[in-house]
Every structure is written in C-alpha cells, then in structure tokens.
Amino acid sequence: MLVLAAAPEKRELAASDIAAFHDLSANTLAKVLKQLRAAGVIAGSPGRTGGYALAKRADNITVLDVVKALDGVEPIFYCREIRRSGPCAAKSGYSSRCAIARTMDKATNAWREALSKVTMADLLDQVGDETPMSTRTKSANWLDTHSR
Q1: Which string of b and e fits 30-66 if b means at least 16 CB within 10 Å?
Q2: Per the record, GO CC terms (predicted)?
C-alpha cells in the first residue's frame, strides 16, 4: 500500500513491479491486490499497460481500511464458552459474554480505533522521516521509472 501511496499522482504500478519492489511472488501479491481492489482501497486498469493505484487519496485511506480489506470485519477473538462445558459447567446464570471475551472485545475495539486514526499518508510521512535520504532518493527514482 505504501508503494502505491508513494507513486506519482495519477500513475499506476504494474503488479509485477509491485511484487518485485517487495520481493513477493506474483501469486501472493495477486491475492492481496484482489482483496484490496474488491474493498475499493485500490483501483486497477486491465491489460499489458494496466496497473494499480490507490482508489482514493492516501489521506483518505486508513490502516483500518486496509486491515478490513485483508482480514475482514469478523471478530478477532471467538469465545468457545468453555465455562458452560465440563464437569463443573452451569448452563445458565452467566452474563452474555465472559470476562475473557469482554476483555478481548475491548482490546479489539481499542486496536481498531487506533488503526482508524492513521492514514496511508501518515504512514508514508513516518516512513519518510525514518528512511535515509539515499534510500528515499533511490525509491523515488524507482517509482518514477516504473510508474505508468
């Protein structure tokens, strides 16, 4: 996502170039791109001269948008209700969610809230601040050469 966020505006990157940039197999990247495109996070143009770009501005795409596109919106923790099983189980008298499940729900909500506050533009700025100038220049040249 960050390589697409860093690409020159109104230009696309071929899937093969994105895969090469991240040293990923084309098959692995194809699955990720398919999910991101289905979620409306990225857009793609078909054909040999086609490629991928962000579907929206980088400051309008949150980390949570990307996580939801790749992992879905299902809860991270699934309570198995083990308190209702075994030799000491009680079938009733419990709250609807156990203490462990409530704790995990709270943690999940905090995690999602934090991710919803960070955009791809924010991450790009942070990565830029942490990256040596020579690497930033090399990356900018690579993007200029490989974007269409």
Answers
A1: eebbebbeeeebbeeeeeeeebbbbbeebeebbbbbb
A2: cytosol
Rounded to 10 deg, the angle between the 26-38 and 15-22 helix axes is 120
pTM score: 0.83
Task: Answer with the residue of higher pLDDT: 59 or 48.
Answer: 59
- Helix crossing, 26-38 with 63-71: angle to 10°? 110
Radius of gyration of the chain (CA): 21
Q: What is the pLDDT of residues 65-114, one digit of tens each?
A: 999 999 998 888 877 766 667 776 776 666 677 888 889 999 999 999 99
What are the residue boundaries of the structural domains of the chain, listed by start?
A: 1-61+132-148, 62-118
What percent of the chain is modeled with pLDDT above 90?
72
DSSP 8-state secondary structure symbol assigned to residue 7:
S
Q: Which CATH architecture has domain 1-61+132-148?
A: Orthogonal Bundle (1.10)
